[in-house]
Amino acid sequence: MSDTTGPLVLREDSGAVAVLLLNRPAQRNALRYESWTALSDLLTEVAADEGIRGVVLAGAGGFFCAGGDLKSGPAHGTGPLGPAGRVEHAQRVMEQLKAVPVPTVAAVEGAAVGLGWSLALACDLVVAASDAFFSAPFVARAVVPDGGLAWRLTQQVGRHRAASLLLRGERLTASDAQHAGLVTDVAEPGSAIDRAVTIAGEFADADRGAVEMTKRLINSAEAAQLAAFHPLELAMATVAQQRSASAAARDQW
Fold this sequence. Notes:
This is Enoyl-CoA hydratase. The chain is of the alpha/beta class. It has 8 helices and 9 strands.
């Protein structure tokens, strides 16, 4: 059952750019299983729309995404809503996001936290407001990184910097993220979406076939390694969620 009065993900086009908004502002756009399904449906729709030449992914209410909503499904059991099912679903939708045939731009206001950071990095380009930050407080919450974040940060910033970000939950400012190659462009506070739409709009007159093939080349450079990494991530994320829930239950008892 949804906890918002509207769709979990909104589509608001701006010319040839589809703007997709995560829409749980009261929960800082934390991602439920149903949020991923709604995003998947819109990505399918956008990919088939020949009039769309760019996609912007953002969060409603001035905040990109607080990560996965661990309370939205059971901590034990199998099936799509169990821990493994939720992690696999997120992995699939992020692969779908990367496969969209037009450029995708994350517009980060507020923060991209945990799985929300993974989602932003699954886009081709990332625009962040100058006062936004990125963090991965998984260990502090007794869970492990998912959404490919451990792999991506290690590849992008090196083992030791990634270890500090993932083990200590260190916050990364928009400026530092840009210097690390994790952010494409820094915008004024409150203008990340507008800037992202402008960037996505640059591809309005580009040859769609050339754009799609270039994206496929970029994605293929990492596909094999990430595909090998995903099963290990799935196994560890599932066990960590179950252990965290068991510890919480013991504390309550």
